[in-house]
Amino acid sequence: MGENLPLIEVVDEIGSTNAEMKRRGREGAPHGAALRARVQTAGRGQRTHVWASPAGGLYLSVLLRPDVSATALPALPVACAMGAMGALREAGCPGARLKWPNDIVVGGRKLAGVLTELAMSDEGAFAVCGIGVNIETLELPASDGALAPLPATGLRDALAPGASCPDLDVLADAIRDGILKFVEGWSAADRWNRKYPSPDSSAQQTSSAEVDRWIKDPVRGGAEGPLAPLLAAYNASLAFIGTRVRVITIEGEELVCGLFLGVDGYGHALVSHDGGIVDTYDAVDVCIRPA
């Protein structure tokens, strides 16, 4: 895939690769354009969290102009994260998994942060997928908020026995290719669904019948919503699925401790507790941590 793409530009230092690529996207930069920084001084993660970006890590942003319907766009962050995770697995890290909603962990430790942001230009909607990968295991500073981050790991420590850590340029190319390839496959499925819609393609909120199907089979349970085409692969890639987790608000309040069943077609986490009661949770409001 990479032979027809512009070279990934590399800069020594920048505030945020995502912010710069959004600026370039508004000026017409093409699908697949990418920027890597050796150091970021204002890297960001989910919910405006600061992402530590010292020299030696991989800090990459990829511009995307997917040919999908507006109703499918909420699934784009998951498609990007799936592509990045696949690239890391192919690079020698088979233990890479997704922490709901879309960061990448190995053995419960955070390896990479993924942030996909939508924006508008004269050419229409576009997105920038930013990813920061720890190459060495970092000691995280003490949290200044109520919710402590997951402990970190580095790619060098997470590689399979006998695998060697790839060069940053090689890894950046592989991750960009992985993201673009997965997004293109997802886009093609959306185009097919638009051309040959199912008899009832209207989006509905998660029903109790759907939750019941998830309880019986959380990976392959039926679902509607923008994530439906990705759902089986997404759930199969999630960390902590089938284990007890704590559901914690952004302010740090623990709401419940229960069994993480998976994610529905709208991206909501499904957690069973108190004798089988299943509640749904939005990633805007809560996160999960292993119990």
UniProtKB/TrEMBL annotation:
<dbReference type="InterPro" id="IPR004408">
    <property type="entry name" value="Biotin_CoA_COase_ligase"/>
</dbReference>
<protein>
    <submittedName>
        <fullName>Bifunctional ligase/repressor BirA</fullName>
        <ecNumber>6.3.4.15</ecNumber>
    </submittedName>
</protein>
<feature type="domain" description="BPL/LPL catalytic">
    <location>
        <begin position="1"/>
        <end position="187"/>
    </location>
</feature>
<dbReference type="InterPro" id="IPR004143">
    <property type="entry name" value="BPL_LPL_catalytic"/>
</dbReference>
<dbReference type="GO" id="GO:0004077">
    <property type="term" value="F:biotin--[biotin carboxyl-carrier protein] ligase activity"/>
</dbReference>
<dbReference type="Pfam" id="PF03099">
    <property type="entry name" value="BPL_LplA_LipB"/>
</dbReference>
<dbReference type="InterPro" id="IPR045864">
    <property type="entry name" value="aa-tRNA-synth_II/BPL/LPL"/>
</dbReference>
<keyword id="KW-0436">Ligase</keyword>
<dbReference type="GO" id="GO:0005737">
    <property type="term" value="C:cytoplasm"/>
</dbReference>
